[in-house]
Amino acid sequence: MANKAAEIAQKYFDGINFSYTVTGENGEALRAAFELKNRTDLDMMMIFDPTENSCAIRSFAIAKVPEGSEDKVYALCNRLNMQYRWAKFTLIESARTIVVADDLLLEEKTIGEEVFSHCMQVVRIIDEAYPEIMKTIWGSK
After folding, report:
1. What is the total count of domains within the chain?
2. Is 136's pLDDT higher than 80?
3. Which residue range is the domain that position 73 belongs to?
4. pLDDT digits (tens, 9 = 90+) for 52-111
5. What is the three-class DSSP state of 114?
6. Cβ 131 vs Cβ 38: under 8 Å
7. Which residues contact 40 (CB under 8 A, 6 or more apart)?
8. How far is the C-alpha of 102 from the C-alpha of 128, rounded, in Å?
9. What is the tens place of the pLDDT at every residue in 26-47?
10. Are 26 and 50 in contact (CB under 8 A)?
11. pTM, full prediction
12. Which helix H or strand E contains 59, and what residues bound it?
């Protein structure tokens, strides 16, 4: 059986013609793609946890990080986390990528609106931060 919160979000997304795909063993995750001003082909996952009434919004592989630039990228992630408090930038060393995360608690009456609003906020933040991310990565070689 699909996740109830994911189903509610799907109905909202369908109503506003927002494209997504359903994934996960129980339909607990939705995936959407975005084209940004500063970056194309951004994937975002919305993972619904019914036991916590929450949604984890994740965008993986924002940028690949070359070896030797970790210190500068960690410093950048700290700066971005202070500047954009609603999204968390993290360097995943094993994958050598920057990931952006947002977590939210859900109210059944407004699940669709909340998740959509948070997704758009994270997309805006990534788009604004992307030039600085690339400048740090390419300038650190």
Report:
1. 1
2. yes
3. 4-139
4. 889 999 999 899 999 988 999 999 999 999 999 889 999 999 999 999 999 999 998 999
5. helix
6. yes
7. none
8. 16
9. 889 999 999 889 887 899 999 9
10. no
11. 0.90
12. strand 54-64
Say which DSSP state 108 is in: G
Dihedral of CA atoms 96, 23, 109, 36 in degrees, nearest 10, equals 50
Give me the pLDDT at residue 141, please.
47
* Residue 112: closest CA among 12, 7, 3: 12
Count of beta carbons in the 10 Å neighbourhood of residue 91 = 17
Identity of the amino acid at 47? I
Is-contact 80 132, C-beta < 8 A? yes
CA distance 21 to 27: 10
Q: What is the CATH number of the domain that holds 54?
A: 3.30.1460.10
The label of the residue with tokens 């996740």 reads 3
